[in-house]
Design a protein that fits this description.
Length: 204
């Protein structure tokens, strides 16, 4: 009976002591945190800034590492113009891309020859634009290729598919036939968006 009473008294006492210790410890920690919160906050901010700086300078991405927004824009424009030049070279060197025949050639892997609205590519040349040359699609059929007969069916129509791309347009032509007498025009380029045909599709 005595042991039972002791256990009934001991268990609540232990719980009380644990709770009191927890409250005391929490109060003590809060006081410490209150005194050093500003220092800790400043140290954390400095650490984050140092980490961000390190990440920026040591980025595995050759484009993102140590470049700002202006440099990224220049890199993007250079890559875009290089891609356009490569496509122009392919069109000039590959006759399968430039032939204008209303037929489907399933032996070729290129989309323009396997489409039911086949198309060819031509070079869109403009001296007052950068890039000067851009490959552009031209539908090879007025109608569409019937998938059952593999012949042109003019009850349907092939239409161009357009996309918009950024180019740099020269606003003042150097080679103007009628030069202005008042002021000499200084050519400058401005980025504009132009529509370029990239393929063909069939509509009913």
């Amino acid at each position: 009976m005595v042991n039972l009473c002791n256990s009934r008294v001991f268990v609540p006492f232990v719980i009380y002591v644990l709770v009191a210790l927890a409250v005391h410890t929490e109060t003590k920690e809060r006081r410490k945190d209150g005194k050093g919160s500003r220092r800790k906050h400043d140290r954390t901010n400095n650490k984050i800034l140092q980490q961000n700086s390190t990440l920026q300078n040591s980025s595995p991405d050759p484009i993102m590492g140590g470049v700002d927004a202006g440099d990224l824009q220049v890199v993007w424009e250079e890559d875009f113009e290089k891609s356009i030049e490569e496509m122009v070279t392919q069109v000039r060197n590959n006759s399968a891309l430039s032939k204008n025949k209303c037929v489907v050639d399933r032996q070729l892997w290129m989309s323009n020859s396997r489409s039911l609205s086949p198309w060819s590519y031509r070079i869109n040349h403009d001296e007052n634009r950068i890039p000067v040359d851009i490959p552009e699609a031209k539908c090879s059929c007025v109608g569409c290729i019937n998938p059952f007969t593999m012949q042109e069916d003019r009850t349907m129509t092939s239409v161009l598919i357009y996309t918009k791309i950024p180019v740099r347009r020269r606003l003042c032509d150097k080679l103007s036939k009628k030069p202005r007498k008042k002021k000499k025009c200084v050519p400058h380029y401005r980025t504009v968006v132009e529509s370029i045909a990239v393929g063909c599709t069939c509509i009913v």
